[in-house]
Amino acid sequence: MKTILVTPPAIEPITLSELLLHLRQDSDDIATALTTAQSILPGSHAVADNYTTHAGTGVSVLGKTAIVNLNAGTVGEGGTVDAKIQESNDNATWTDWAGGAFTQVKADNDNAIQEKQYTGSMAYIRVAAKVLVAACEFSADILTIGHDAIEDTWLNDAIATAREHIEDITRRALLTQTWEYYLDSFPLKDFIRLPFGNLQSVTSVKYKDSDGTEHAMTVTTDYIVETNGDGCGRIVLPYEVSWPSATLYPSNPITIEFVCGWTAANLVPKRIKAACLMLCAKLYASRGEDIIGQSVVEDKTVERLLASSRLWEEF
Asked: What's the 3-state SS for the chain?
């Protein structure tokens, strides 16, 4: 079977909230989890050949991921800005964090943002800077994000992974997606069966003749669409109509584009949703290694949940 996914599904069979409830976890949305703090306020900063005059405010980063931005404005003529990240466990005694020095800001690289991720282990960080020759415009921001929000990204990826695995097992496209299906010749039968089930519509049926010229067939006149509910849809010849008799192009001459899948998550059978939750829970628990004594049981349960949803037609 030769198929290409044109448009992937825009939704998943389960939501992040449903998975978090299944895992008995809680989470913050990105707006709640992401915090931006100004370590050095924006403005024109005077010449100071030290890192104490322009030492910024400390920001708590314990248990969070931190991104530090040096926002450079216009530097004065001949001016330079040297900035670095400093760390502390008490927000009082500061040391330079190794690898925390930003590229020196000069006239040829001003009006730009430099970004560094803090990967140290102390509770507070800040930015300290010195300015030479002329006053310079700049500021420093520290963005922190709670680990729950990072976990959400992983969990959303796990949901998509579980859905794709279920689609492989069941041979279905679970939710609305667009595919192209390629055939080497028209069949001897008066119909073409389409894969993945839950056919919503056929966008086009096209074929190329031996010269490579593409021809579009017309729905109702040249073919009829048979959706067949949860089963495999078909393209059927109308009464007394035959497939085109042209000599076909040697490579993928027939292309059928179609849309399939359930149109909403609440239409996906509960047994499929349950299997998706179980697969996500297993991915969450193992993080790369199966848990001894659980993986076999879970796999058999998932298989049993999905058995009645599998499409058995061969393509």
From this structure: CEEEEEECCCCCCCCHHHHHHHHCCCCCCHHHHEEEEEEEEEEEECCECCCCCEECCCEECCCEEEEEEEEEEEECCCCEEEEEEEEECCCCCCEEEEEEECCCECCCCCCEEEEEEECCCCCEEEEEEEEECCCEEEEEEEEEEEHHHHHHHHHHHHHHHHHHHHHHHHCECCECEEEEEEECCCCCCCEEECCECCEEEEEEEEEEECCCCEEECCECCCEEEECCCCCCCEEECCCCCCCCCCCECCCCCEEEEEEECECCHHHCCHHHHHHHHHHHHHHHHHCCCCCCCCHHHHHHHHHHHHHCCCCCCCC
Q: Which two tokens stand for residue 40?
A: 């050095």
pTM over 0.85: no
Tell me if 235 sits within 8 A of 224, measured CB to CB: yes
Q: 75 φ, ψ to 5°?
A: -90, 150
Separation of CA 111 from chain center: 31
Please state, as a whole number, how many other Cβ atoms lie within 10 Å of the Cβ of residue 104.
11
Q: Shortest CA distance to 280 belongs to which of 9, 29, 14?
A: 14
Report the distance separating Cα 83 and Cα 86, nearest Å.
Answer: 10
Question: What confidence score (pLDDT) does residue 30 get?
Answer: 65
Q: What is the mean pLDDT of each run of 10 residues along the chain (315 residues)?
A: 95 89 72 86 97 96 90 96 96 95 96 94 95 97 80 88 96 97 97 97 97 97 97 97 96 97 95 95 76 54 92 89
Q: 193: which strand partners?
A: 234
Strand 136-146 relative to strand 59-60, pairing: unpaired
